[in-house]
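--- STAGE predict ---
source: upstream dedup step, 1 unique chain passed
mode: sequence only
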Amino acid sequence: MERLDLRQTWQEEPVDVCGFLHVHEDLVKKVQAAMPEEEDLYSLADFFKVFSDSTRIRILYVLLCSETCVCDIAQLLGMTQPAISHQLRILKQMNLVRARRDGRTVFYSLADGHIASILSQGMEHILE
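--- STAGE serialize ---
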């Protein structure tokens, strides 16, 4: 798949702006009423930042397929266990994964169906 160079695209495409200033008050009021609180928008931005790391995406895809432990994830991704543990800690802090202890082994899985849906929809969008 070809990567898009956004810097080049931004330079070549003109930005659409209104030809004259006219605020549509009814539309503005409707959108303002529907907008989430600023703090919630910051939380949403932080949530999506977690998806910006390809290692974390790879880990989430492993967990989309199966509940597994750090050793197995490290083997599957060709990475060290400490590197995987570090990324799992971030994913866990953001409530994207959950841990389950079975004896001395900790198994990780996606926190809920929303995460699987986000991954699936994102991939569907990329592959269109």
